[in-house]
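Record 1 of the preview.
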Amino acid sequence: MFLLIGCGIIIIVTIVAIWRSKKPLKTILAEAKYELLYNAVGSRAIIEDVFMRSRNKTDLPILSGKVAVITGGARGIGAEVVKMLLQCDIHVIIGCRNTQAGEQVLQKCRDSGVTTGNITVYKLDISVLDSVKSFAKVVAEKHPKINYLINNAGIMFGPYIESRDGYESQFSTNYLGHFLLTHLLLPQLCAAGTETLKSRIVNVSSCAHLVGEIKFEDINNRHQYISAEAYAQSKLAQVLFTNYLESICKKENMPVQLHSVHPGIVNTELFDGTHLKNLAPWIPSLMFKTPEQGAIPIVHACLSPHLEGKGGTYIHNCRIFSTSENAKSEDLQEKLFNFTKDLLKIEDFGQAHNNNN
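->
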């Protein structure tokens, strides 16, 4: 009841704020629709997080010699994922824009008593395609075998901004850059995997994918930009990509499996500046998961032996959950995959060692 009252207040105040923005009526109605949809799926996810709290746990086995690559591992959920991987004695490669912040993660982990594992940090702006290529080249040269790739970096909402390459920032950061990085590091992932112990690719998505659609005719949302709609599109794209690449790996007998993960509704700085945090700042700290709790299902998707051979699944609170009907569409998966390859001018996906893509 307390949650429903809080959400009701947020919906009312948000709709009033949108109405006072003096935007065109069509835009106002579209934004209000997404606010209602987000409150619906978000409220459901919060309730699930509360009732499934006891199930949101995973083991941290010692895995000396394994190598993990994570994007955006310098703060928030990513930093907690790194800490857990270090506890497993895994060598973690962090790709982030602020390399100094990435290097500080190791010291914070050491200060907290984690003595195992190690960290290497390389500069990466996942929204910039040239930066992705440079990062992947360095990683591939120094680490011929990669056991885990965690596509974690992301942004949420905000004004319309295009990346250096001319793509809407959420689409570019959350999806496009990670698609390219996966393509470039797939040979190293294949080299580390075996038939009985596959390498894993984990795409950190969101329950927002449930309300997402792919606007192929206006992928940048230039015609009518609604940040919540663009975010949902980027998160749906991640799940579609996860499912389609999994089918390719199975078809071609690649020793790699993929999972998409909803970490939960987590109290991180991604919510800074949102209507929710501006209007009801007490809700995130009271009702949302902590970054550590949000990191657990991501690590579970990477390491759990119970998921071996169960690729192409969507993980929520360390359990396999159903995705949206759009995410299950094989036609949509293939269409987006080929559309993205064309955008990035990739001919043979995963054959990065044979070309300059």
